[in-house]
Amino acid sequence: MKGLMQNNLAMMVLFSIVVLSAPIWANPIGANYPDLLQKFAIFGIFAIGYNLLFGLTGYLSFGHATFLGVGSYTAVWSFKLLSMNIIPAILLAIIVSGIFALIIGFLSLRRSGIYFSILTLAFAQMAYSLAYSVLTPITNGETGLQLTQQDPRYLDVLAGVVVEDGLPSTNLFGMLMKANGGYSGFYFAALILILSFYISLKIFRSPFGLKLKAIKSNQTRMKYTGFNTKPYLLTAFVISGMYAGLAGGLLASIDPLAGAERMQWTASGEVVLMTILGGSGTLVGPLLGAGVIKYFENIFSALNQAELIEVFSFMPEFLQNILVFICTPFVGEGWHLTLGAIFMLVVIFLPGGIIEGLQRVSGYIRRLVGFDKEQVNKESKEERA
Amino acid sequence: MDAILIQLLNGLDKGAAYSLIALGLTLAFGTLGVVNFAHGALFMLGAFCAVTFQKILTISKRVKDESITFFDAYKDQPYLEIWWGDTGAAIIDYAVPLSILFAIPVMLLIGVALERGLIKHFYKRSHAEQILVTFGLAILIQEVVRHFFGANPIPTPAPDVVSGSAAIGSFLGLSDNLVYPWWRLIYLFFSGVIIFAVFAFLKYTTFGMVVRAGMADRETVGLLGINVQKRFTIVFAIAALVAGLAGVMYAPILPPDYHMGMDFLVLSFVVVVVGGMGSLEGAVAAGFLLGVLQSFASMNEVKAIIPGIDQIIIYLVAVIILLVRPRGLMGREGVFEE
Amino acid sequence: MVDKKTDLDSPSRRGVLKAGAALAVASPMFYLKDSWAAADQVYRNAPKGATVTLGFNVPQSGAYADEGADELRAFKLAVKHLNGEGDGGMMKTMKPSMLKGNGILGKKVVFTTGDTQTKSDAARASAKRMIEKDGALMISGGSSSGVAIAVQGLCQEMGTIFMAGLTHSNDTTGKDKRRYGFRHFFNAKMSGSALGPVLKEEMGTERVAYHLTADYTWGWTQEESIKETTEGLGWQTKAAVKTPVGAGDFSQYITPILNSGADTLILNHYGKDMINSLTQAVQFGLRDKEVNGKTFEIIVPLYSRLMAQGAGENLKGILGTTAWNWALTDEGSQAFVKSFGAEYGNPPSQAAHTCYVQTLLYANACEMAGTFYPPEVIKQLEGFEFDGMGNGPTEYRAEDHQCFKDVLVVRGNQKPTSQFDLLEIVQQVPRSQVEYDASIFGGDLGPYKV
Predict the structure, then answer these.
(1) CA distance B72 to C342
(2) For the whole model, what pTM was predicted?
C-alpha cells in the first residue's frame, strides 16, 4: 500500500479509475445523475485548490468563494461576448480570478493568523455585497447573470456559427456540454479534476510544496534563516485562487449562470468545511469532504418519511417505527441538522477528518491480518504531514 | 445638525449591539483561546429566552373561535388574563424586561454545559478544528430552535409604556423631528451598564485579576497552581450570559428568528479582530466605531457620492485598519497570529 | 415538521425511485434509444409507467422556510385532489375543467420535493435533481423572484415546464420571460395599478412619498412600478433609498425620513426585511407623526401572511396588496379554504393558493392537450381562460405567460377576530384595471421545442 501511494503513476491511475467510474459506484447511493456528479467533480477541484493553500501553509482563507464567483462571472461574460466554446471561457476564468487572487493575496498576506482570515473575509463580503447590488449591470444582481439570445458572441459570429431559435449551448468545439443528458459535462469536469489532482500531487511533492509545509510548521524559524516566505505564500494563494476560478468557470460552462450568492461568506465557509471534514493537508481528503457535503445538500435534503420507511422496511414493524421516528428530524428539511452533527462528530473523534477515519479502519484491518504495527503508524503520519 | 446628531445616536445604538456581542466573543478568545463560531447562536438563544418567556406567560386555554365557520378553529386566551385580568395582561406586556431574570440562569447554565461538555476538550486543538466544531454546534442549536419555533420572525414587543419615542429634540431645545425610540435608549444604557460591569468585574475582583493574568500569560498562571480550569468555565459562562442578555434586549428591535445568530456572527468577528485579538477595550471601541461609521455611511448625502458604500463600509474599514495597524486597534503581539 | 400524509404516497414513491434508478443505470444510452422510439414527440421524462412525477421546489431552509412549508402543503393537497382523494377542493369549482380525479391522463400523480434555500444555485441544483434523477415532468414552487427566474431559465433549457410559485418581480414575465415558464401570481406592476385608486381615495393627491427599497432586482421593479402609480396621482417622490438585503437594523435609513418632509413611507421590502423595517419605523414614531398637516402613512405594496404574523401589532391599518386571501367569499376560495383547513387546521396563505392553482392548471392543460408533450401543454396554457379559482375570471396571457385576475388591496386588520384574521380586504380591484401591454417590459419567450 505504501509503495503504491508513493508511486505517482499508480496513484493517478487508481484515482482516474475511481473518478471516471463515478456513474457506476454512485448509483447504489442514489447520486448517479449528471448534476450531482458534475458538482462532485467541480467542488472537488475547488477543495483541492483550497487545500493547496490551507493544507500546505495553514493560512485559513475565508474568502475563497470570491474567486469561484469571479470565475463564473468571467466565464458567462465570455459566453456572452466571445464564444459558446468553453475553452476561452475557462482560460479567462482562471486568468481573471488569478488576478483577483494576486491583489487580494498581496494585501491579505501582509498579516497572518486570524488577521489574515478576517482580511480575506472582508474582501469577500465586499465583493458579494457589491455584486448583489450596485454592480448589477455587470452581475445582474440577485437573479444572476444569464445568457440571452441577443448576446453578441463576436468570435462565434466570426466563425460563422448560426444559432437557431432558443439559447445556444456551451460546447467544447461542437461537443455540447449537455449532450448525453449531461454526462458529457460530467466527463469533461472529471478529466479536469484528474488533471487538477495531478498538478496538486506534483505541488505536494515538489520542493516548493516542502517549503510551504515548512512555513506551516514554523514560519518564524524560516524567517530567521533569512528565508523570505512571502513570495511562496503569495504563489500558493494565487494558485489556489486560480483553482477556484477554474471551478467557477466549469460551473458556468456546464450551467451558464453566475449568481452573487456563490461569493457569500457561507460559500467560502463551505470549502473550509469540506477541506477540514475530509482531512486538510492530505491529497484526497478535501475531495471526500466536498463529496460528503454535496451529497447531503442534494440527496439527504430530499429524503422524506416515506423513503425512510422504505429503507427500514426489512425490520420488524415496531423497530422500523422507532428508527423512522428517530431519523425523520435528520432528513428532508432537517439535513442541516445532520450536517452540523457530522461536523461535530468528525472533529471530536477524528481530528484528521474522514481520511483519518479511513486510515484507522485500514490500520485496524491490517493489524488483524498481522501487518507490522510500527509501519502502519509511520505511514499514517506521513500521509497526514 | 439634527441629521448628524440622530445618526450619531443610531451609530451608538448599533455600536452598543456590536460591542456587547464582541465583548463575549473576545472574552472567550482572549482567556480560553477558543474561536467560538457558536457565539452568534448564543446571542440568538438569548433572544429566544425572551420569546420562550413570552410564550410561558401566554400559555393559553384553547377557546373555540366562533368567527371562523369554514372549519373548526380555536383561539388562545392566556391563563394569566383569565386568572388575573388586567394585572395578568400587564405582566404579559412586560415579558421582555422580565425575561432577563429568566435568561440569566438559563444562559449561565448553557454556558457551563457547553464549556464542560465540549469547549474544554478543544483548548489544545487547532483553530480550524475549533471553528469546525463550534460551527457544527451553531447549526445544531439553530435547527433545534427552528424545530420548536419555526423560521418566521416572532414579534416580541417592548412594554407599551416604552413603545413610543422620546422627544429628545424638544427637550434639548432643538428640532421637534429629533426623536428616538425609548427602547433603543434603554438598550444603549443597558449595554453601557453591562460593559461597565464586565470591566469592573475583571478589574476589581481577584477572580478578574486571575483571568486578566490568564489572558496575558496562560501558562504561568497555570504554573502558579491556580485552578485555571474552574475559572475558564466561569469565564465562558459569563461570555454566554453577555451574548444572551444582548439578545434578550435586542428582541423588540429585531423580531427574533432562528437565523439571527449567523447574521451577526461574521460582523462580530470583524469587530473583535478590528479591535485587536484579546483586547476587551479594543472590542468595545471597534464596536462603537464601526456602528457609527455604518450609520454615517448610510446617509443619502454620502451614498450619493459613493453608491453602495453603506453595504461595504464595515469591511472596508476593517481592511484599512488591519493594513495600517497590524494587530487591530489594541491587539497585542503574538496573539492568534500563528 | 412531521408530515402525516406521506404514508399515503409511499408505494408509488417506491416505484418511482426504482424507475429512477433503472433510468440512471441506462442513462448514457437512454437518449439515443428514446429518440428512435418516437421521432416527432421526443421529450424528457415522458411518463412510462402508471404514474407521472411532479417536482415541488420550495424553500425548506433560510428565511422563507415557513412559506415554503405552506407551499408544500398546498402541493400535497393538490396531488391528493388530482388523484381523486379528499373532497376535491377547487377541482369542483374550476371552470372549464377536464380534470377527472383519476390523476393526469389516467396516470397517478406522485411528487418529489427539493430545497431551494432561496438561492439561485441551490434552486437550480435541486430542480436538476428532480428532473435528471427523479424524472419530474413539471417543476413548481419557490418564494423569490431571483429563484423563479433562475429556475425558469433552467427549465427552458431542459424542456421542462415551470409553474412559478410566489414571485412578484416584473422581470419573471417581463424581460426574463420564458416559453416554459408560467406565472399565476401577480406582479409589482399590477400591485401599483391596483393601489392607485385606493391611495387616491384614502390619502388624496398631494402626498410626498419616501421609498425604502431592498437593493436587488425585485425591490427595484417594485419601486419603479409604485412610483409610476403615485406620481401619476400627483404625489411627489422625496427620495428612494436602497437598503442592503438582510440589514437587520434599519434605523440609519429610517431616521432621515423624520426630517425629510415626506408624509408617506413606501416599504419595498419583503419577508424578514419588511418585518424589521416596519417594526422599527413604528418604533421611531413615524405613524404618530403629522407632516404637512397630514397623518404620516406607511404603505407595504406586497403583503404576505407570514410578514403580517412577524410584524404583529405594527401592521394594523397599513395598506398593501396581496394576490389572494382566505377570507374571500367566492365559491372557489371557500372550497379551497375548507379543504385546506380541514387537512391542516389553518387557512392557506397566498403562496399556498398560487401553488395549488398552478398544479391544477398544469394538470388540466395536460388533459386538454391529451398528452404530456410540453409544447402541446404550453399551447393549451397560453391564452387559457378560466374561473372558479378565486380572483374571478382569469386569463393566462399568451404573450408573456402572466395570469390576469383580480388583485386585492388589503389593510392590516385593526380588530382581528382570530389569529388568522390579519388582513382586511379593502377592495377587490377588477382585472381590467391592472392589465397592461405585454410589450412594455420587452423580453423574449423563446421556442416551443428545445
Answers:
(1) 8
(2) 0.88
Q: Where are the domains of chain B?
A: 2-324
Rounded CA-CA distance B115/B121 in Å is 8
With contact defined as 3+ CB pairs under 8 Å, the chains touching A are B, C
Cite the beta strand spans of chain A per DSSP E. Answer: 145-146, 171-172, 175-176, 257-258
Evaluate whether residue C23 is within a structural domain.
yes
C360 and C285 in one domain?
no
Neighbours of A295 (CB within 10 A): 17
Residues of chain C with C-beta less than 8 angstroms from the C-beta of B17: 249
User: Which of the residues C1, C255, C417 would you substitute to probe the B interface, choosing the one with the greatest number of B C-beta atoms within 10 Å?
Assistant: C255
Q: Which of C401, C416, C439 is the last residue of a domain?
A: C401
Residue C302 lies in a domain: yes
Cβ separation of C244 and B310 shorter than 8 Å? yes
Q: What is the mean pLDDT of each run of 10 residues along chain C (450 residues)?
A: 39 41 40 40 86 94 87 95 92 92 94 89 92 93 91 92 95 92 95 93 92 90 94 93 87 89 93 91 88 91 87 89 92 94 91 96 95 94 94 93 95 82 90 93 87
Complex ipTM tops 0.85: yes
Assess whether C277 and C225 both reside in one domain. Answer: yes
Cα A168 to Cα A73, C44, C156, distances in angstroms? 18, 19, 12
Contact between chains at B153 and C338 (C-beta distance less than 8 A): no
Of A23-32, B76-85, C384-393, the range with the lowest mean pLDDT is B76-85
Q: What pLDDT does residue C6 have?
A: 38
The answer to whether residue C354 is domain-embedded is yes
Q: Which residues contact B269 (CB under 8 A, 6 or more apart)?
A: A118, A121, B25
Domain holding C286, by residue range, is: 189-322
CATH number of the domain encompassing residue C272: 3.40.50.2300
**Same domain for C168 and C104?**
yes
* Domains defined for chain A, CATH in brackets: 31-274 (1.10.3470)
